[in-house]
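Two records follow; treat each independently.
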Amino acid sequence: MDQPASRLPDDFQSRYGGAAPDVAPPVNAVLETMLGHRSVRAYLPDALAPGVLETLVAAAQSAPTSSNLQAWSVVAVEDPERKGRLADLSNSQRFIRQAPLFLCWVADLSRLTRLGEAHQRRLEGLDYLESFMVALVDAALAAQNCVVAAESLGLGTVYVGALRHHPEKVAAELNLPPNAFAAFGLAVGHPDPAVPGAVKPRLPQSLVLHREQYGIAEESTAIAGYDKALGDFSQAVGMGRQDWTQRMISRVGTAAALSGRDRMKEALTALGFGLK
């Protein structure tokens, strides 16, 4: 039986700037959604339908979680004034105000801390970096499940790492308890069709897929090809022609380029994390 027509081959090529692996990818609606992902930075003012938030959180809670610790929480922000304050703390990104929903994903060891206190136990394992890493990974897995669910409903999303610019101020705005850290934000809403997003090319698979052992033999050649692909993409969407190498060197070349996040360990300690 012939396979039904699908956008997947086009999205598969777009994801690699026309240089996708020479394979015949399987086709289904989930893959169409995932390979068609794009960041949306312009939203209509329309509110989300009743029940959508709860459905997105159910999808998030369906993600894997280490040892069933479920060491994450999410703060759903819909109040325009609070969204505005969070936008101000996140590099003044306009779409945070535009989107009807802004989700703040929290690496949350506080619930386990309270659980120990309720049973007169000090949970020493929470003082270690490993526990913080578990909470951070749990939050990221949950958030990505939410993104896929949102996009399957026709909604747009964009992650906001700039929420980490001012961790203590964000924690105060969200009333987070000690041992809880707002790791990143996620704007969710109806995309503005007047400002369409595009599928941004990613690194070629030869740079990220290593079979049996890690290898770098073709790295320079592959990066040069990707620099051209991303430069072409950036120029096509009106962002100027800057290649990936230039962007990455600029992004992590100095401590100042981290926009305040160079003090992250200090901030996490102030928020109550042991990080031993």
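The next record belongs to a different protein.
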Amino acid sequence: MKPVTISNKNATQGFVRFSIRATAESDAPPILNAFEVYELITDLNSPTDIKDVDAMENIKRYYGISRIDWQGDPCLPEKFRWSGLDCSYGINPRIISL
């Protein structure tokens, strides 16, 4: 078995069809271990100010904080901002309280 990634950057609508089949040398049926579909989402917001991100990363490291939701951008998307933070959402989001 070998992993295979198939990408179609031009698929914007409609259907995608694929099939799997055993190789000519195999007497076993084909195996599909996983199937993942990703959708590119355009984020219209700028990322959280890098100075704030660096400060939060330093705080995490210094105090050994390991929280599952403290990953990625601290303020964005707003629905998934890090717990315990308050952010301002101007042109460039900023952390305003912890």
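Discussion point: Strands lie at 86-88, 94-97. How would you locate this feature using only the token line?
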